[in-house]
Amino acid sequence: MAKTETGAGTGRRVSAARERLLGTAGQLFYAEGIHTVGVDRLVAEAKVTNATFYRHFRSKEDLAVAYLQSVDQAIRTQIDSLTAADVPTDGILRGIGASLVDQIRSPGYRGCAFLNAAAEFPDPDHPVHRAVVRHRDWFLQTITGLFAEITTEQADHAGRHFVMLRDGAMSAGYLGDPVLAGETLQRGIEGLLRIHAARGQHEPTASASGQASSSVTTVAGIECSPSSQV
């Protein structure tokens, strides 16, 4: 019988074989693409049988959805832990940006797992595409909510601006210079925060020559890629 362990805080039994499959899929799907990796290879590298695979996942696409959900949950957990801590709202937004910069500059970085998956599954009705959209809807709502805590005036605009900065930096960091992409992202976030704070104060926008705050809280694990551990 396969070993199981109790999921943290869930009271459910988690299959070790399922976790190996999910971890293996995360590494291979992120590094090589979902379409490229076949079930036979997943089974071999996870050291399970075909029967075990299909007991846990109906198809490779079902596993791909679970992979994206695991990345999504890791990001939700990390942001929730930061918002529950005694960190100013602008510090949370800076921290998310700083963590994205760390990811962009990390070895093996291959862009955003969600954007990569959406490119492979363009059909909006496909379960993988829907999983991407669900994550992005949540992320946008979360970022917009943080800007609304600073001021509700044009918080929707600020949230969309932040997400577009993030998307551009993650793509540019993979396709171009990751150091420059990270610096541009942080400068963009800093400028966006200045402008948005000024809206709440009903004052003219601060000079563009202002520098980024020296106090930045890094949010560990805000990554649109799977964990390095299988």
Task: Describe it.
With 230 residues, the chain is mainly α. It contains nine helices and two strands; from the N terminus they run ββααααααααα. The chain has helices spanning 16-32, 39-46, 50-56, 60-83, 89-104, 113-120, 127-150, 155-175, 178-201, and strands at residues 4-6, 13-15. A two-stranded antiparallel ribbon has the order 1-2. α5 (89-104) crosses α7 (127-150) and α5 runs antiparallel to α9. The chain is elongated and about 65 Å long. The two termini are 21 Å apart. 32% of the residues are buried.
**Cα gyration radius (Å):** 19 Å
Structural class: mainly alpha
Strand order across the biggest sheet?
Answer: 1-2
- The portion of residues assigned to helices is 55-70%
Q: Residue ranges: pLDDT <50 for 5 or more in a row?
A: 1-12, 203-214
Principal-axes shape call? elongated
Biggest pleated sheet? 2 strands, antiparallel
Q: Mean pLDDT score, rounded?
A: 86
The N- to C-terminal Cα distance equals 21 Å
Order of helices and strands: EEHHHHHHHHH
Total DSSP helices: 9
| Number of E-state strands | 2
Strand content: under 5%
Feature tags:
single chain; elongated; two-stranded antiparallel sheet; 3% strand; 230 residues; disordered N terminus
Task: Report a brief summary of the structure.
With 230 residues, this protein is mainly α.
Secondary-structure topology with pairs:
Layout: E1 4-6, E2 13-15, H1 16-32, H2 39-46, H3 50-56, H4 60-83, H5 89-104, H6 113-120, H7 127-150, H8 155-175, H9 178-201
Antiparallel strand pairs: 1-2
